[in-house]
Amino acid sequence: MEKEFLRWQEDYSVGVREIDEQHKRLVALINKFYNAFYDHKHKEVIDEILSELTDYTRYHFSTEEKYFRQFNYSDTLIHIKEHKDFIEKIKTFIAEKEISASTTTFKLMAFLQNWLINHIKSIRNVLLNMDLNKSVRL
Ligand SMILES: [Fe+2]
Known about the structure:
Elements: H1 17-38, H2 42-70, H3 76-96, H4 101-129
Helix pairs in contact: 1-2, 1-4, 2-3, 2-4
The structure holds fe (ii) ion.
Fe (ii) ion binds at residues 19, 23, 60, 64, 119, 123.
């Protein structure tokens, strides 16, 4: 049975369906990684998961940045910087995994859990306070 390392909660909702769906997909990706770790398969799947994570977060960040621009969010650059920092951090994990896939997996799981929860909270604060038009709200 699939185990949940992270569980989606209603208070994770940022009020915008498109972004919520993408955050749910990120939760699912983290859980997929956790299950591989639990089944001792992380060495086989670490490359695939890291590249999926890189591709999907790039796509997800571009969605969020689209909303920031569309609604003239004043701190857009700060958030774009946070997105870039995340991509850079993942690159360091990609480099480190050559030394020890197990240590990297362990550190990566902790990083992703903290990062996603903080990311959702921060984006949630932005979007809930933004004057979004009704068409994008849930
Ligand atoms: Fe996000």
